[in-house]
Amino acid sequence: MTIHLPPVPQRHAGAAGSGAALYAAVARLGFRRPFAYPQAALWGVVTNAFFGLLRVSVLAALFGVRPQVAGYSVTDAVTYTALTQAFIVALALFGWTDFMRTIHRGEVGTDLLRPMNLLGFWAAQDAGRAAAQFVLRGLPMLLIFQVGAAFTGGGLHWPAGPLAWTQTILSAALAWACGFLFRFLVNCAAFWSPDAAGFGRFAWALLGLGCGFLMPLAFFPAWAQAALACTPFPSMLNTTVELWLGLRSGPGAWVALGTQLAWTAALLALTAFTLRRGLRRLEVAGG
Q: What 3-state class would DSSP assign to 285?
């Protein structure tokens, strides 16, 4: 039997406080899930540290005897590598297909019965997952790089002062929100294609390049930086890194945060619209 699901309105759980409690509960479950696999987190840290060492070696060779490259010092380059390695899993920079799989398997039909907005449900779940992964893998990664740099007589570059820390944390939250909406939007391709993973592979490659994970965007040619500035990708990681390193400060830091917020709002509107259109054509087979 094939069930055609019309675009039903999302049900709300009574008062706003009750709805917030539901999302908080979903976020807690998302946070707890990665802790069920501590060995996976441990070996993930080991793997990330190994590849981080390789990336540091490549960047160090780029500097040679020069004190700076495109505004980055050697310490900045090491810190950039530590940060990007720390955020790999938290920001799902290598891809995320959870929602896509629920569409293909028909499990999205069950999700639609939950007393909360579908996009909000997945956002809360992913927020908990991201926080847990940063605790399990991000913080140990920063510690490993800090200790390693200390042995060489240096250290990582840390935000200078409470304002810089506040701006960096806000930027990291916006980077997650912007990145999640982009990933969810890509996953919505499953409403129209039975092989949406192909769209995902292209999107994740574009994300890794455009967000500044593969290389700091400051190292790109001027024309490439200008082109990427017209996309949301720098807001998904590069802005946070530059705020952490102090490459953007004063009014420029607030402009960067405003840009992240604007892209997040634009992606939210686009993702919500695409989700509504996708639900109109959703079919769930079962008996």
A: strand
